[in-house]
């Protein structure tokens, strides 16, 4: 892959995804190209509803409580949350899906092209990995690289995470309650160039012609520091268990079949070599993180690289 000026990389990446003939702008949905946690089953939405219920209680049960899904794709997660909500929360819940591409008609889901103010829970599920970044080749005097990628070797390439830091900080600033980023990523100790593409279930060479999704790992440590406040970074595997998403085959007949199917879905969501290896960056926004999530081991990136996307 040949090098280009820094601004050209970011502009080309943005056009490839969000320009007039961009991958997402023309209506492509992630579900057509790779498997994500909302597509596995309802369990992720169940976990997020548990988290939202804790946020709701900490906020004193406001008359309207928000669930904002940023980078919503086809709205699968937003619709699942809306469908599974029950009791008092369901009667007060406002679900907003934020997406630049064409919206999908889903009962109970409002669509927006920019992040609204949120009193409740904002979730960026595999959103930040699609925020375009500049790309540089070492050595580089870029301030972000000097702070967050100081070991960049001569001739090596790197994604500059500053636009993601700004996007996440702005999103967190719009929230009273909690903000959660769920994604694949890396830390300063494990930085590596990860720009890649996905098309029809396969990892492909990233090209900027709108024919594939273009994505790269999220620098969770820099995003966390940019947004500031009270935050924690844990694995999806640990977070789901802490939020009550467990499953084991039990019973007999149809009950056994249903519980076995759930156990299989939970195992996929918690697989440390796959979706379970995703990071969950949770910020409390006027709410203490300790009131939302118990103490868990800190997230560590999988050194093997990208989680498998099918």
UniProtKB/TrEMBL annotation:
* Alphabetical list of Pfam families matching this protein: Methyltransf_28 (PF02636)
Name the InterPro entries on file: NDUFAF7 (IPR003788), NDUFAF7_sf (IPR038375), SAM-dependent_MTases_sf (IPR029063)
Q: Which domain of life is it from?
A: Bacteria
Bilayer-crossing regions? none
Alphabetical keyword list = Methyltransferase, Transferase
Protein name per the record: SAM-dependent methyltransferase, MidA family
Give the species this sequence originates from.
Answer: Lentzea cavernae
